[in-house]
Amino acid sequence: MLVRLPRPFFPLGFRVVRGHALMACLGLALALALPHGAVEADTVWMNNGDRLTGEVKELDAERLSLLTPYGVIALEWHQIEAIESAAEIVARDETARQAYLSRLRPAEDGAAVIAVAQETGLPEAAVIEQVLVPRPFVHKPTWQGSLELGFNYKTASTRTEDYTATVDTELRHASWRHNIYANYLRRTDDAATTAHLFGGNIASDRFLTGTLFWQGRARYKWDQIEEVSQQTALGTGPGYQFWDNETGAFSLSGLMGRLRYDYNDGGSDSFFAASLRWDYKRYFLDSNRLELYSTGELTRPLNSSSDINLDAVVGMRYRMTDWLSWFLSYSRNQISGSRQNLNEKRISTGLGVSW
Fold it and tell me: 112, 166, 154: which is closest to 317 by C-alpha?
């Protein structure tokens, strides 16, 4: 039985059409095939007779992204004659709650198809409209991250210097995902320190299913200048991963825990709180060079110690090379209704390296 990839794709997500009826969504995971210790390559045949090898990262409405030793190449779909994958694809039917092993291979007329075993029970007329490669659970740990540095120097009636540094890393192993984030800022005006702060966040996710996870989180922020000098938070709760593939990722988690404010006058407040935490990123342009992202947490105390706590950042990154990028971000840290309020806004830009 063959599941055909029509040309062109429709930009409606990865779905299965059976006859004229729209059926359940499928999720794809690309498993690495390692026969005899070697990694096989996917093959793409072009209309002009060229043949390219690499790893298929994404098939969408307009193009195919192929990872080669020379980087990621974006190929227009109308230029492609056929595709063959070396690795097996796991196609999951959410309605039937079953997963099927399959491979991309060329049909007799040159069109790209997916071969699926007859015992899956899928009808002959199934048509896949989009293919994305989610991030699979892997038993071998994977580590990725970025380091971003910013510096600003201005001379006018006063001399201003800004220094910023941000580290964001992620470790994945089997059904676990760990994230460590830290940022530092120091600003001086005519040698007088006007901003000096450090913040860090550690989160661990244990996936219970492919999308549902349980999260534990610890957050700390220290500020030498503002009236709220320290913020400490511990929380745990469920989360949901809406998507995580080559086009980006989005997750939400609801946490319950303990929050503490320390003030520069020596006082403090400690209370239970509920929070909503999000993590969003989306890639654009060829080879995913442009990234839009937003992370943050909205916290509401369960007593009258304060009204709301918002700690969020939104920004963009433009990848100039495989490892060097330029970033622009806007962050907001607001505490309202407490004994000492805080309303901190910051715009940062600079260069970053990723691995």
Answer: 166
Decide: pTM greater than 0.85: no
Q: How far is residue 286's CA from residue 66's CA, in Å, rounded to a whole number?
A: 11
Per the CB < 8 A criterion, the answer to whether 250 and 277 are in contact is no
- Cβ neighbours for 222, distance < 8 A, ≥ 6 positions apart: 197, 198, 199, 229, 230
Structure tokens at 105: 């291979």
- Residue 65: strand pairing partners: 58, 74
* CA–CA dist 352, 85 (Å, integer): 34
How far, in Å, CA of 312 to CA of 181, rounded? 13
DSSP string computed for 289-317: -EEEEEEEEEEEESSSS-SEEEEEEEEEE
Tokens of 289: 């060079």
Judge whether 119 and 5 are in contact, CB under 8 Å: no
Tens of pLDDT, residue by residue over 295-350, are 999 999 888 767 888 999 999 999 999 889 999 999 998 888 777 788 888 888 99
Domains, the chain, ordered by start: 2-132 (no CATH), 139-354 (2.40.230)
